[in-house]
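Exercise 7.
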Amino acid sequence: MQLKDFYTVNDLSVDGQIATAQITINSKHDIFKGHFPGNPVTPGVCMMQIIKELTEKVVEKDLFMTTSSNIKFMAIINPEKTPDLVLELDISKTEGGYKVKNTTRFDETIALKLSSNYKVI
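Solution. The predicted structure, written as tokens, is:
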């Protein structure tokens, strides 16, 4: 796990090619001391890393992100107000790895949508 103690996986279930993860962001993590003091915002790059790590758990392989597209940050994820997230990963096998379409939400709010391609390393 690249993001040590940044988040906890509360549940991870797989139904066909759809994986659903329930996670909790650690609002006390050192990242939030600088991003941003008094108004913590979960960095987008950290969310992208979480998606990669969850995909690795599902496919049981080490992955390297090769491309991402349609990245839409739609709501701020403030770990003090909305630390509990649900990530839906639509994982499909490709010739050299996997394609993942993600939707991340808290409550009924969609916070992030993206598509990424990963190669197996």
